[in-house]
Design a protein that fits this description.
seven-stranded mixed beta sheet, Rossmann fold, alpha/beta, 12 helices, 2 domains, four-stranded antiparallel beta sheet, single chain
């Protein structure tokens, strides 16, 4: 197992080459109607005329095939505004840190990504590397070091919570003192904590229907941990300015598919924890202590192949809450679905805040308590 959460330079080179090839294969099928394409069999019965977003991209690429060049796709993935490019390869690097935290690729549509995942696992070179691949959103897949997923922060905190609380300068609230009895709500970002990116921009936490409820939870002394598959700089840009300075020490931001964890430092700015990057994977070794961590997870990906699933599985599915649409949720997760996206998060947070104030202490996120929230 890798000593750090970061991909090596050799991993990055191999993953970029694979991702560029798969994007080209996928769009070549629709442009050239190549029956031998690995994506052709999956396309049986698929009517592109019913999928406007994909059709628009295909028509664009028909007019300019240079858009499919790997260098162009990587260029599209650079910078905080990368989200404006519907097809891109993001090589997420950190200054002065070798390799990359994650490769995030957008462009292969919905269930066609299952072909991509299968081909990744069958690739002789990639299969020898300690890598994992997961679906994300509607058109993305993410490549990380094996073991780096949305379950990893729970493993790390279960063994290092005191260290993190000290580093972030945690301040107890008027009900909860996490130094004695922590109460942690972990949540996905897009579609759960705040809105989805669009051509209009990146919705911030302050614009979310759940904003006031999340701030109230922080004032009570709770810890809110965002776990995002998005880039760290892009995630922080949507969170930091929304949270009052005196509440930032109760917020943890995990991004790059859980390759990085950031908390506020003495200067009031969020910085990535070098200990997490260096030692988080070691927390997977030895005894599993997640059951001792008082935490729930809110997500909006109802697919077992999605990037939220490792978090559901690590905590136990019955300790998770899904705010996605029920019709888009796999059977095994149906009972945990309340729907509503950010509005669903607001309802859940309001009820947790109300119950916590009524109890006058930190509540336990037991299966029974989570079940009681399902009617929110």
């Amino acid at each position: 197992m890798s000593q750090t959460t970061y991909l090596t330079e050799q991993d990055v080179e191999a993953c970029v080459a694979f991702s560029g090839h798969e994007i080209k294969e996928f769009y070549s099928y629709f442009i050239h109607h190549n029956a031998k394409s690995p994506y052709g069999e999956w396309a049986n019965g698929f009517n592109i005329d019913s999928h406007d977003a994909l059709k628009e991209i295909v028509l664009k690429f028909c007019g300019d095939k240079t858009q499919l060049l790997v260098d162009k796709l990587v260029k599209n993935g650079e910078g905080i505004d990368a989200h404006i490019h519907p097809v891109r390869i993001e090589v997420r690097k950190t200054k002065d840190v070798p390799g990359a935290s994650q490769i995030a690729v957008r462009g292969v549509y919905e269930d066609f990504r299952q072909v991509t995942l299968n081909r990744f696992k069958a690739n002789d070179d990639l299969s020898k590397r300690a890598l994992s691949i997961k679906m994300s959103g509607q058109m993305s897949f993410e490549i990380n070091v094996k073991g780096v997923d949305k379950a990893l922060p729970f493993h790390y905190l279960s063994k290092n919570l005191k260290l993190v609380l000290a580093h972030m300068g945690y301040q107890p609230g008027n009900v909860i003192n996490a130094n004695d009895a922590p109460m942690i709500i972990a949540a996905d970002a897009d579609g759960t904590t705040y809105g989805f990116p669009s051509e209009k921009g990146l919705p911030t936490l302050a614009e979310s229907p759940a904003f006031e409820a999340i701030m109230e939870f922080l004032r009570l002394g709770g810890i809110y941990m965002i776990i995002s598959g998005n880039a760290m700089d892009r995630t922080l840009s949507r969170v930091v300015d929304s949270v009052p300075q005196d509440l930032r020490s109760n917020v943890i931001v995990v991004a790059n598919g859980a390759a990085d964890m950031a908390v506020v430092g003495p200067d009031g700015q969020f910085d990535c924890l070098t200990d997490y990057r260096a030692h988080a994977l070691k927390s997977l070794e030895g005894e599993n202590k997640i059951d001792s961590l008082n935490v729930t997870y809110l997500g909006d990906d109802g697919k077992i192949h999605g990037n939220d699933y490792p978090a559901y599985e690590a905590l136990g599915i019955k300790r998770a809450i899904l705010v996605c649409d029920q019709e888009k949720t796999d059977d095994v997760l149906q009972d945990q679905c309340v729907g509503g996206h950010e509005e669903g998060t607001r309802r859940i947070m309001d009820k947790i805040n109300q119950d916590t104030k009524q109890a006058g202490k930190a509540l336990e996120f037991s299966e029974d308590y989570i079940r009681s929230l399902m009617t929110c």
